[in-house]
Protein backbone atom coordinates (compact mmCIF):
# COMPACT_ATOMS: atom_id res chain seq x y z
CA UNK A 1 0.00 0.00 0.00
CA UNK A 2 1.33 3.46 -0.86
CA UNK A 3 0.77 6.77 0.92
CA UNK A 4 2.08 10.32 0.72
CA UNK A 5 3.01 10.38 4.40
CA UNK A 6 3.58 7.55 6.86
CA UNK A 7 3.73 8.55 10.53
CA UNK A 8 5.32 6.18 13.04
CA UNK A 9 3.67 6.29 16.48
CA UNK A 10 0.42 7.94 17.53
CA UNK A 11 1.72 10.12 20.37
CA UNK A 12 0.11 13.56 20.42
CA UNK A 13 2.94 15.15 18.40
CA UNK A 14 2.70 12.49 15.68
CA UNK A 15 -1.06 12.97 15.50
CA UNK A 16 -0.65 16.76 15.22
CA UNK A 17 1.71 16.30 12.23
CA UNK A 18 -0.64 13.71 10.71
CA UNK A 19 -3.66 16.00 11.14
CA UNK A 20 -1.97 18.97 9.42
CA UNK A 21 -0.79 16.73 6.56
CA UNK A 22 -4.24 15.13 6.12
CA UNK A 23 -5.92 18.56 6.18
CA UNK A 24 -3.53 19.68 3.44
CA UNK A 25 -4.89 16.87 1.27
CA UNK A 26 -2.11 14.30 1.55
CA UNK A 27 -2.79 10.58 1.93
CA UNK A 28 -1.68 9.83 5.49
CA UNK A 29 -1.25 6.59 7.45
CA UNK A 30 -0.30 6.41 11.15
CA UNK A 31 1.08 3.17 12.65
CA UNK A 32 0.90 2.81 16.44
CA UNK A 33 2.39 0.01 18.49
CA UNK A 34 -0.15 0.10 21.35
CA UNK A 35 -3.86 -0.75 21.25
CA UNK A 36 -4.86 2.91 21.67
CA UNK A 37 -3.70 6.30 20.41
CA UNK A 38 -1.97 8.96 22.47
CA UNK A 39 1.24 7.43 23.85
CA UNK A 40 1.96 9.50 26.97
CA UNK A 41 -1.34 11.39 26.46
CA UNK A 42 -3.88 8.58 26.79
CA UNK A 43 -6.60 7.52 29.21
CA UNK A 44 -8.39 4.24 29.96
CA UNK A 45 -10.70 2.68 32.52
CA UNK A 46 -7.94 0.94 34.46
CA UNK A 47 -10.01 0.17 37.58
CA UNK A 48 -13.70 -0.60 37.00
CA UNK A 49 -15.54 2.74 37.10
CA UNK A 50 -12.31 4.80 37.29
CA UNK A 51 -10.49 6.30 34.30
CA UNK A 52 -6.74 6.85 34.69
CA UNK A 53 -4.36 8.85 32.52
CA UNK A 54 -1.29 6.81 31.56
CA UNK A 55 0.97 9.85 31.15
CA UNK A 56 0.63 13.62 31.15
CA UNK A 57 -2.40 15.15 32.84
CA UNK A 58 -1.92 18.93 33.13
CA UNK A 59 -2.54 20.61 29.77
CA UNK A 60 -0.56 23.84 30.01
CA UNK A 61 1.85 24.26 27.11
CA UNK A 62 -0.60 23.37 24.32
CA UNK A 63 -2.77 26.24 25.49
CA UNK A 64 -0.02 28.63 24.40
CA UNK A 65 -0.23 27.33 20.81
CA UNK A 66 -2.83 27.83 18.04
CA UNK A 67 -3.16 24.03 17.49
CA UNK A 68 -6.60 23.49 19.03
CA UNK A 69 -8.10 26.27 16.91
CA UNK A 70 -6.20 25.54 13.68
CA UNK A 71 -7.13 21.84 13.74
CA UNK A 72 -10.67 22.64 14.98
CA UNK A 73 -10.29 20.04 17.70
CA UNK A 74 -13.45 21.14 19.51
CA UNK A 75 -15.38 20.03 16.41
CA UNK A 76 -13.82 16.60 16.90
CA UNK A 77 -14.88 16.26 20.53
CA UNK A 78 -12.20 18.04 22.57
CA UNK A 79 -13.67 19.89 25.52
CA UNK A 80 -11.22 21.65 27.83
CA UNK A 81 -12.21 22.12 31.47
CA UNK A 82 -10.39 25.03 33.13
CA UNK A 83 -8.73 24.56 36.49
CA UNK A 84 -9.08 27.53 38.83
CA UNK A 85 -7.23 27.61 41.17
CA UNK A 86 -4.38 26.45 38.96
CA UNK A 87 -2.32 25.20 41.90
CA UNK A 88 -2.71 24.72 45.60
CA UNK A 89 0.59 24.97 47.39
CA UNK A 90 1.31 23.60 50.82
CA UNK A 91 3.87 22.43 53.33
CA UNK A 92 1.04 20.66 55.14
CA UNK A 93 0.38 23.52 57.55
CA UNK A 94 -0.10 26.75 55.56
CA UNK A 95 -1.83 26.27 52.22
CA UNK A 96 -2.11 29.00 49.58
CA UNK A 97 -3.48 29.17 46.06
CA UNK A 98 -2.28 30.26 42.64
CA UNK A 99 -5.41 31.51 40.87
CA UNK A 100 -5.70 32.25 37.17
CA UNK A 101 -6.12 35.87 38.24
CA UNK A 102 -2.73 37.31 39.11
CA UNK A 103 -4.06 40.07 41.37
CA UNK A 104 -6.21 37.68 43.38
CA UNK A 105 -3.18 35.40 43.87
CA UNK A 106 -0.95 38.27 45.00
CA UNK A 107 -3.62 39.75 47.25
CA UNK A 108 -4.18 36.44 49.07
CA UNK A 109 -0.45 35.78 49.31
CA UNK A 110 0.16 39.16 50.95
CA UNK A 111 -2.46 38.36 53.57
CA UNK A 112 -0.77 35.05 54.49
CA UNK A 113 2.89 36.06 53.96
CA UNK A 114 3.19 39.89 54.08
CA UNK A 115 5.34 41.23 51.21
CA UNK A 116 5.30 38.00 49.19
CA UNK A 117 2.30 39.00 47.08
CA UNK A 118 4.15 42.09 45.97
CA UNK A 119 7.24 39.94 45.21
CA UNK A 120 5.03 37.58 43.20
CA UNK A 121 3.61 40.48 41.14
CA UNK A 122 7.14 41.76 40.47
CA UNK A 123 8.38 38.31 39.46
CA UNK A 124 5.51 37.84 36.99
CA UNK A 125 5.92 41.35 35.59
CA UNK A 126 9.71 41.01 35.19
CA UNK A 127 9.57 37.70 33.32
CA UNK A 128 6.39 37.79 31.21
CA UNK A 129 8.19 39.21 28.12
CA UNK A 130 10.92 36.56 28.38
CA UNK A 131 8.41 33.74 28.83
CA UNK A 132 6.48 34.95 25.76
CA UNK A 133 9.71 34.99 23.74
CA UNK A 134 10.52 31.43 24.77
CA UNK A 135 7.03 30.40 23.70
CA UNK A 136 7.59 32.00 20.29
CA UNK A 137 10.88 30.10 20.00
CA UNK A 138 9.02 26.87 20.81
CA UNK A 139 6.68 27.47 17.88
CA UNK A 140 9.40 27.64 15.23
CA UNK A 141 12.00 25.19 13.95
CA UNK A 142 15.15 25.87 15.96
CA UNK A 143 17.96 27.73 14.33
CA UNK A 144 21.10 28.43 16.38
CA UNK A 145 21.22 32.01 15.07
CA UNK A 146 17.65 32.73 16.17
CA UNK A 147 18.21 31.59 19.72
CA UNK A 148 19.79 34.82 20.94
CA UNK A 149 17.10 36.82 19.23
CA UNK A 150 14.34 34.91 20.99
CA UNK A 151 15.86 34.51 24.41
CA UNK A 152 17.89 37.62 24.95
CA UNK A 153 16.61 40.26 22.58
CA UNK A 154 13.00 39.06 22.52
CA UNK A 155 10.11 41.39 23.19
CA UNK A 156 10.73 43.74 26.10
CA UNK A 157 14.26 42.54 26.78
CA UNK A 158 16.37 45.16 25.06
CA UNK A 159 17.13 47.64 27.84
CA UNK A 160 18.23 45.41 30.70
CA UNK A 161 19.31 42.38 28.70
CA UNK A 162 22.65 41.96 30.50
CA UNK A 163 20.98 41.64 33.88
CA UNK A 164 18.27 39.38 32.48
CA UNK A 165 20.79 37.11 30.77
CA UNK A 166 22.65 36.68 34.07
CA UNK A 167 19.44 35.38 35.64
CA UNK A 168 18.58 33.12 32.71
CA UNK A 169 21.94 31.36 33.04
CA UNK A 170 21.41 30.62 36.75
CA UNK A 171 19.91 27.57 38.47
CA UNK A 172 16.18 28.10 39.06
CA UNK A 173 16.55 27.41 42.77
CA UNK A 174 18.80 30.48 43.01
CA UNK A 175 16.49 32.75 41.03
CA UNK A 176 13.57 31.77 43.29
CA UNK A 177 15.62 32.88 46.30
CA UNK A 178 16.28 36.27 44.72
CA UNK A 179 12.56 36.98 44.48
CA UNK A 180 10.98 35.28 47.47
CA UNK A 181 12.18 35.57 51.06
CA UNK A 182 9.52 33.11 52.33
CA UNK A 183 10.45 29.46 51.81
CA UNK A 184 6.79 28.37 51.89
CA UNK A 185 6.27 30.43 48.72
CA UNK A 186 9.58 29.53 47.09
CA UNK A 187 9.48 25.77 47.61
CA UNK A 188 6.25 25.01 45.68
CA UNK A 189 7.27 27.28 42.79
CA UNK A 190 10.64 25.55 42.68
CA UNK A 191 8.91 22.15 42.82
CA UNK A 192 6.78 23.08 39.80
CA UNK A 193 9.93 24.16 37.92
CA UNK A 194 11.46 20.75 38.72
CA UNK A 195 8.83 19.00 36.58
CA UNK A 196 11.02 18.95 33.47
CA UNK A 197 13.69 16.94 35.26
CA UNK A 198 16.76 19.12 35.92
CA UNK A 199 17.29 19.80 39.66
CA UNK A 200 17.09 23.33 41.17
CA UNK A 201 20.88 23.46 41.33
CA UNK A 202 21.50 23.00 37.57
CA UNK A 203 23.16 25.88 35.73
CA UNK A 204 21.06 27.49 32.96
CA UNK A 205 17.88 25.88 34.24
CA UNK A 206 16.22 29.19 35.28
CA UNK A 207 13.85 29.18 32.25
CA UNK A 208 11.89 26.34 33.88
CA UNK A 209 10.94 28.81 36.64
CA UNK A 210 10.81 31.90 34.45
CA UNK A 211 8.04 30.26 32.40
CA UNK A 212 5.74 30.60 35.45
CA UNK A 213 4.09 33.92 34.35
CA UNK A 214 2.47 32.12 31.42
CA UNK A 215 0.38 29.98 33.77
CA UNK A 216 -1.62 33.15 34.36
CA UNK A 217 -1.93 33.68 30.58
CA UNK A 218 -2.82 30.23 29.21
CA UNK A 219 -4.11 28.61 32.39
CA UNK A 220 -4.12 24.92 33.20
CA UNK A 221 -6.80 22.67 31.74
CA UNK A 222 -8.05 19.12 31.41
CA UNK A 223 -9.80 17.49 28.49
CA UNK A 224 -13.17 16.12 29.61
CA UNK A 225 -12.90 12.33 29.89
CA UNK A 226 -9.16 12.46 30.63
CA UNK A 227 -6.00 13.51 28.88
CA UNK A 228 -6.75 11.06 26.10
CA UNK A 229 -9.60 13.39 25.07
CA UNK A 230 -6.97 15.44 23.22
CA UNK A 231 -5.52 12.52 21.27
CA UNK A 232 -8.96 11.04 20.50
CA UNK A 233 -9.96 14.40 19.00
CA UNK A 234 -6.72 14.44 16.98
CA UNK A 235 -7.45 10.89 15.77
CA UNK A 236 -10.92 11.96 14.63
CA UNK A 237 -9.42 15.01 12.88
CA UNK A 238 -6.94 12.81 10.97
CA UNK A 239 -9.67 10.36 9.97
CA UNK A 240 -12.12 13.12 8.99
CA UNK A 241 -9.59 14.22 6.39
CA UNK A 242 -9.14 10.74 4.98
CA UNK A 243 -6.14 9.64 7.08
CA UNK A 244 -5.88 6.08 8.35
CA UNK A 245 -4.72 5.05 11.83
CA UNK A 246 -3.55 1.49 12.45
CA UNK A 247 -3.41 0.33 16.09
CA UNK A 248 -1.41 -2.60 17.50
CA UNK A 249 0.80 -2.11 14.44
CA UNK A 250 4.43 -1.77 15.58
CA UNK A 251 7.00 -0.70 13.00
CA UNK A 252 10.13 -2.82 12.82
CA UNK A 253 12.15 -1.13 10.05
CA UNK A 254 12.29 2.15 8.20
CA UNK A 255 12.95 1.17 4.57
CA UNK A 256 15.53 3.05 2.54
CA UNK A 257 16.66 3.15 -1.09
CA UNK A 258 20.01 4.82 -1.59
CA UNK A 259 19.85 8.09 0.35
CA UNK A 260 16.05 8.17 0.68
CA UNK A 261 13.51 6.79 3.15
CA UNK A 262 10.80 5.05 1.14
CA UNK A 263 8.52 3.32 3.64
CA UNK A 264 8.21 1.02 6.64
CA UNK A 265 8.06 -2.67 7.45
CA UNK A 266 5.77 -3.69 10.32
CA UNK A 267 6.73 -6.33 12.83
CA UNK A 268 4.28 -8.72 11.14
CA UNK A 269 6.22 -8.27 7.86
CA UNK A 270 3.73 -6.02 6.01
CA UNK A 271 5.37 -3.29 3.93
CA UNK A 272 3.96 0.19 3.26
CA UNK A 273 5.58 2.83 1.07
CA UNK A 274 5.35 6.63 1.09
CA UNK A 275 6.90 9.82 -0.23
CA UNK A 276 7.76 10.85 3.32
CA UNK A 277 8.17 9.02 6.62
CA UNK A 278 7.75 10.89 9.93
CA UNK A 279 8.97 9.18 13.08
CA UNK A 280 7.27 10.40 16.26
CA UNK A 281 8.72 7.73 18.55
CA UNK A 282 11.65 8.10 20.93
CA UNK A 283 14.68 9.01 18.79
CA UNK A 284 16.47 5.83 19.93
CA UNK A 285 13.53 3.80 18.56
CA UNK A 286 14.08 5.57 15.22
CA UNK A 287 17.76 4.65 15.45
CA UNK A 288 16.83 1.00 16.06
CA UNK A 289 14.55 0.97 13.00
CA UNK A 290 17.22 2.32 10.60
CA UNK A 291 20.05 0.50 8.80
CA UNK A 292 23.21 1.02 10.87
CA UNK A 293 24.98 2.99 8.12
CA UNK A 294 22.18 5.59 8.12
CA UNK A 295 22.66 6.47 11.80
CA UNK A 296 25.06 9.32 12.60
CA UNK A 297 27.21 8.69 15.66
CA UNK A 298 25.68 11.73 17.43
CA UNK A 299 22.27 10.05 17.29
CA UNK A 300 23.54 7.20 19.45
CA UNK A 301 25.02 9.60 21.99
CA UNK A 302 21.81 11.36 23.09
CA UNK A 303 21.32 11.54 26.87
CA UNK A 304 18.15 9.81 28.06
CA UNK A 305 19.15 10.25 31.69
CA UNK A 306 18.18 7.82 34.42
CA UNK A 307 14.43 8.26 34.97
CA UNK A 308 13.23 10.93 37.38
CA UNK A 309 9.53 10.63 38.26
CA UNK A 310 6.99 7.97 39.13
CA UNK A 311 3.23 8.00 39.65
CA UNK A 312 0.91 6.28 42.05
CA UNK A 313 -2.59 6.34 40.55
CA UNK A 314 -5.34 5.60 43.03
CA UNK A 315 -9.04 4.88 42.79
CA UNK A 316 -10.67 6.10 46.03
CA UNK A 317 -14.12 5.22 47.37
CA UNK A 318 -14.46 8.71 48.93
CA UNK A 319 -13.24 12.24 48.23
CA UNK A 320 -9.75 13.40 49.20
CA UNK A 321 -9.89 15.17 52.57
CA UNK A 322 -7.01 17.49 53.26
CA UNK A 323 -6.11 18.19 56.88
CA UNK A 324 -5.63 21.94 56.60
CA UNK A 325 -6.67 22.95 53.12
CA UNK A 326 -9.85 24.67 52.05
CA UNK A 327 -12.43 22.49 50.34
CA UNK A 328 -13.37 22.01 47.59
CA UNK A 329 -10.77 24.29 45.89
CA UNK A 330 -7.83 22.18 47.05
CA UNK A 331 -9.06 19.22 45.02
CA UNK A 332 -9.27 21.24 41.77
CA UNK A 333 -5.80 22.46 40.77
CA UNK A 334 -2.44 20.71 40.89
CA UNK A 335 -1.40 20.20 44.52
CA UNK A 336 2.21 21.35 44.87
CA UNK A 337 2.89 19.55 48.13
CA UNK A 338 6.36 20.08 49.50
CA UNK A 339 7.50 20.49 53.09
CA UNK A 340 10.54 22.64 52.31
CA UNK A 341 13.34 23.06 49.75
CA UNK A 342 15.45 20.47 51.56
CA UNK A 343 12.90 17.79 50.75
CA UNK A 344 13.49 18.21 47.00
CA UNK A 345 17.27 18.36 47.36
CA UNK A 346 17.33 15.30 49.60
CA UNK A 347 15.20 13.41 47.08
CA UNK A 348 17.66 14.36 44.36
CA UNK A 349 20.58 13.23 46.52
CA UNK A 350 19.00 9.82 47.07
CA UNK A 351 18.33 9.56 43.32
CA UNK A 352 21.98 10.33 42.53
CA UNK A 353 23.02 7.49 44.81
CA UNK A 354 20.72 5.11 42.90
CA UNK A 355 17.99 4.98 45.54
CA UNK A 356 14.26 5.77 45.24
CA UNK A 357 13.55 8.76 47.44
CA UNK A 358 12.22 7.88 50.88
CA UNK A 359 10.12 11.05 51.42
CA UNK A 360 9.14 12.62 48.07
CA UNK A 361 7.54 15.97 47.35
CA UNK A 362 4.26 15.34 45.53
CA UNK A 363 2.04 16.74 42.84
CA UNK A 364 -1.48 15.66 43.78
CA UNK A 365 -4.19 15.51 41.12
CA UNK A 366 -7.82 14.70 41.88
CA UNK A 367 -9.49 15.80 38.67
CA UNK A 368 -12.73 13.91 39.32
CA UNK A 369 -13.48 17.09 41.29
CA UNK A 370 -14.15 18.86 37.98
CA UNK A 371 -14.83 15.90 35.66
CA UNK A 372 -17.49 13.43 36.80
CA UNK A 373 -16.64 11.00 33.98
CA UNK A 374 -13.44 9.92 35.77
CA UNK A 375 -14.89 8.24 38.87
CA UNK A 376 -18.21 7.08 40.36
CA UNK A 377 -20.26 9.87 42.05
CA UNK A 378 -18.93 9.25 45.59
CA UNK A 379 -15.43 8.24 44.48
CA UNK A 380 -12.31 10.09 43.36
CA UNK A 381 -9.25 9.54 41.21
CA UNK A 382 -6.09 10.62 43.00
CA UNK A 383 -2.84 10.66 41.05
CA UNK A 384 0.37 11.30 42.97
CA UNK A 385 3.40 12.26 40.88
CA UNK A 386 6.66 12.13 42.85
CA UNK A 387 10.41 12.73 42.26
CA UNK A 388 13.16 11.52 42.13
CA UNK A 389 13.43 7.85 41.04
CA UNK A 390 16.35 6.30 39.17
CA UNK A 391 15.60 3.86 36.35
CA UNK A 392 18.80 1.99 37.15
CA UNK A 393 18.80 1.23 40.85
CA UNK A 394 21.95 0.82 42.92
CA UNK A 395 20.30 -2.12 44.69
CA UNK A 396 17.68 -4.63 43.46
CA UNK A 397 15.19 -4.35 40.60
CA UNK A 398 12.03 -2.27 40.22
CA UNK A 399 9.95 -5.44 40.52
CA UNK A 400 11.49 -5.90 43.98
CA UNK A 401 11.36 -2.26 45.10
CA UNK A 402 8.12 -0.98 43.61
CA UNK A 403 6.06 -1.61 46.80
CA UNK A 404 8.57 0.24 48.97
CA UNK A 405 8.52 3.26 46.63
CA UNK A 406 4.70 3.15 46.41
CA UNK A 407 4.40 3.08 50.23
CA UNK A 408 6.79 6.04 50.56
CA UNK A 409 4.61 8.12 48.22
CA UNK A 410 1.48 7.23 50.13
CA UNK A 411 3.14 7.99 53.48
CA UNK A 412 4.27 11.36 52.15
CA UNK A 413 0.71 12.17 51.03
CA UNK A 414 -0.79 11.12 54.36
CA UNK A 415 1.03 14.12 55.89
CA UNK A 416 -1.44 16.31 53.95
CA UNK A 417 -4.51 14.06 53.91
CA UNK A 418 -4.45 11.41 56.64
CA UNK A 419 -6.75 8.46 56.12
CA UNK A 420 -6.36 8.36 52.33
CA UNK A 421 -4.94 4.84 52.61
CA UNK A 422 -8.27 3.48 53.88
CA UNK A 423 -10.10 4.88 50.84
CA UNK A 424 -8.15 2.92 48.18
CA UNK A 425 -10.14 0.48 46.03
CA UNK A 426 -7.71 0.09 43.13
CA UNK A 427 -4.38 1.38 41.87
CA UNK A 428 -1.71 1.52 39.18
CA UNK A 429 1.94 1.95 40.15
CA UNK A 430 4.00 3.50 37.36
CA UNK A 431 7.69 3.13 38.17
CA UNK A 432 10.40 4.31 35.71
CA UNK A 433 10.60 0.67 34.60
CA UNK A 434 6.83 0.64 33.93
CA UNK A 435 7.13 3.80 31.82
CA UNK A 436 10.01 2.29 29.87
CA UNK A 437 8.25 -1.04 29.27
CA UNK A 438 4.72 0.20 28.57
CA UNK A 439 5.08 3.64 26.97
CA UNK A 440 8.43 3.28 25.21
CA UNK A 441 9.88 6.08 27.35
CA UNK A 442 13.50 4.96 27.37
CA UNK A 443 15.00 4.80 30.85
CA UNK A 444 11.66 6.04 32.15
CA UNK A 445 12.31 9.63 31.05
CA UNK A 446 8.90 11.22 30.42
CA UNK A 447 10.60 13.92 28.33
CA UNK A 448 12.31 11.26 26.11
CA UNK A 449 15.71 12.99 26.51
CA UNK A 450 17.21 15.01 29.35
CA UNK A 451 16.04 18.62 29.19
CA UNK A 452 19.47 20.08 29.96
CA UNK A 453 20.58 23.08 27.89
CA UNK A 454 22.98 20.81 25.97
CA UNK A 455 19.93 19.08 24.46
CA UNK A 456 17.56 21.96 23.85
CA UNK A 457 16.73 24.09 20.81
CA UNK A 458 19.02 23.33 17.84
CA UNK A 459 20.80 20.65 19.88
CA UNK A 460 17.67 18.49 20.28
CA UNK A 461 17.83 15.60 19.57
CA UNK A 462 21.35 16.23 18.28
CA UNK A 463 23.13 18.89 16.27
CA UNK A 464 22.40 18.49 12.57
CA UNK A 465 18.91 16.99 13.03
CA UNK A 466 17.35 20.02 14.58
CA UNK A 467 15.04 21.13 11.79
CA UNK A 468 13.06 17.91 11.99
CA UNK A 469 14.89 16.34 9.03
CA UNK A 470 17.04 13.23 9.52
CA UNK A 471 20.50 14.35 8.39
CA UNK A 472 21.58 11.29 6.39
CA UNK A 473 18.32 10.48 4.58
CA UNK A 474 15.96 12.46 2.41
CA UNK A 475 12.23 12.13 3.14
CA UNK A 476 12.72 11.05 6.77
CA UNK A 477 11.41 13.50 9.36
CA UNK A 478 11.33 13.50 13.16
CA UNK A 479 8.76 14.78 15.60
CA UNK A 480 7.95 14.31 19.29
CA UNK A 481 9.47 14.99 22.67
CA UNK A 482 12.90 13.88 21.44
CA UNK A 483 12.92 17.01 19.26
CA UNK A 484 12.61 20.75 19.90
CA UNK A 485 11.02 22.01 22.13
CA UNK A 486 11.10 18.76 24.12
CA UNK A 487 8.70 16.92 26.42
CA UNK A 488 5.32 18.02 27.69
CA UNK A 489 1.83 18.17 26.24
CA UNK A 490 2.33 20.94 23.71
CA UNK A 491 2.16 19.64 20.15
CA UNK A 492 4.59 22.37 19.05
CA UNK A 493 7.04 19.81 17.76
CA UNK A 494 4.27 18.12 15.75
CA UNK A 495 3.20 21.47 14.28
CA UNK A 496 6.77 22.55 13.49
CA UNK A 497 7.44 19.21 11.79
CA UNK A 498 4.27 19.58 9.74
CA UNK A 499 5.46 22.96 8.48
CA UNK A 500 8.84 21.55 7.38
CA UNK A 501 7.17 18.48 5.83
CA UNK A 502 4.45 20.38 3.96
CA UNK A 503 6.97 22.85 2.59
CA UNK A 504 9.10 19.98 1.24
CA UNK A 505 6.10 18.07 -0.15
CA UNK A 506 4.73 21.13 -1.90
CA UNK A 507 7.99 21.41 -3.86
CA UNK A 508 7.11 18.15 -5.64
CA UNK A 509 3.30 18.25 -5.73
CA UNK A 510 2.77 14.83 -7.24
CA UNK A 511 0.02 12.98 -5.50
CA UNK A 512 -2.41 14.88 -3.38
CA UNK A 513 -5.89 13.43 -3.16
C1 LIG B 1 3.55 9.81 33.91
C2 LIG B 1 3.71 11.05 33.06
C3 LIG B 1 3.25 12.27 33.53
C4 LIG B 1 3.40 13.42 32.75
N1 LIG B 1 2.83 14.61 33.18
C5 LIG B 1 2.76 15.65 32.31
C6 LIG B 1 1.91 16.76 32.57
O1 LIG B 1 1.13 16.76 33.54
N2 LIG B 1 1.93 17.80 31.69
C7 LIG B 1 2.71 17.79 30.57
O2 LIG B 1 2.71 18.77 29.81
N3 LIG B 1 3.50 16.72 30.27
C8 LIG B 1 3.50 15.65 31.10
N4 LIG B 1 4.21 14.52 30.75
C9 LIG B 1 5.06 14.53 29.55
C10 LIG B 1 4.29 14.36 28.25
O3 LIG B 1 3.13 13.57 28.47
C11 LIG B 1 5.18 13.70 27.18
O4 LIG B 1 6.42 14.34 27.13
C12 LIG B 1 4.53 13.80 25.81
O5 LIG B 1 3.19 13.34 25.88
C13 LIG B 1 5.31 13.03 24.75
O6 LIG B 1 4.52 13.01 23.57
P1 LIG B 1 5.10 12.59 22.15
O7 LIG B 1 4.00 12.70 21.16
O8 LIG B 1 6.29 13.38 21.86
O9 LIG B 1 5.61 11.10 22.31
P2 LIG B 1 5.02 9.78 22.95
O10 LIG B 1 3.78 10.07 23.73
O11 LIG B 1 6.15 9.13 23.65
O12 LIG B 1 4.54 8.94 21.69
C14 LIG B 1 5.35 8.04 20.98
C15 LIG B 1 4.43 6.97 20.41
O13 LIG B 1 5.19 6.09 19.58
C16 LIG B 1 4.71 4.77 19.78
N5 LIG B 1 5.73 3.81 19.33
C17 LIG B 1 6.92 3.51 19.92
N6 LIG B 1 7.58 2.60 19.21
C18 LIG B 1 6.81 2.31 18.12
C19 LIG B 1 6.95 1.45 16.99
N7 LIG B 1 8.02 0.66 16.84
N8 LIG B 1 5.96 1.41 16.07
C20 LIG B 1 4.86 2.18 16.18
N9 LIG B 1 4.67 3.02 17.24
C21 LIG B 1 5.64 3.09 18.19
C22 LIG B 1 4.44 4.73 21.27
O14 LIG B 1 3.62 3.65 21.63
C23 LIG B 1 3.78 6.10 21.47
O15 LIG B 1 2.40 6.04 21.27
C24 LIG B 1 4.05 13.35 31.50
C25 LIG B 1 4.48 12.11 31.02
C26 LIG B 1 4.30 10.96 31.78
C27 LIG B 1 4.73 9.63 31.23
UniProtKB/TrEMBL annotation:
Domain Amine oxidase: 15-501
One Pfam family, short name: Amino_oxidase
InterPro entries named among the record's database cross-references: Amino_oxidase (IPR002937), FAD/NAD-bd_sf (IPR036188)
Subunit and interaction comment: Interacts with COX5B; this interaction may contribute to localize PYROXD2 to the inner face of the inner mitochondrial membrane.
Function field: Probable oxidoreductase that may play a role as regulator of mitochondrial function.
Protein name, as recorded: Pyridine nucleotide-disulfide oxidoreductase domain-containing protein 2
Organism of derivation: Deinococcus roseus
Source lineage: Bacteria, Thermotogati, Deinococcota, Deinococci, Deinococcales
Amino acid sequence: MDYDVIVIGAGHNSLVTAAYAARAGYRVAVFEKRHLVGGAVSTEEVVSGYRFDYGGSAHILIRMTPIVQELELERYGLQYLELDPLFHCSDGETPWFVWRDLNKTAHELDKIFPGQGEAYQRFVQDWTPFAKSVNEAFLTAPNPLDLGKHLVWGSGMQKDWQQKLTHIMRPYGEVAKEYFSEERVRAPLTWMAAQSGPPPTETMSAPFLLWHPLYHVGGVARPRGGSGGLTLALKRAVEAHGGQIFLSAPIKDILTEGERAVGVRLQDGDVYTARAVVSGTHVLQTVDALPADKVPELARQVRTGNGFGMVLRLALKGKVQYRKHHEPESRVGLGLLIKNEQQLLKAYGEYLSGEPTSDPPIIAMSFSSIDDSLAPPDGEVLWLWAQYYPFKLARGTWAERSTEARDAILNAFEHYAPGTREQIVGELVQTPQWLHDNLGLRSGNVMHLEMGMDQMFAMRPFLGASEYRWPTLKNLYLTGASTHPGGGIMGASGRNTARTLLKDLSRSPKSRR
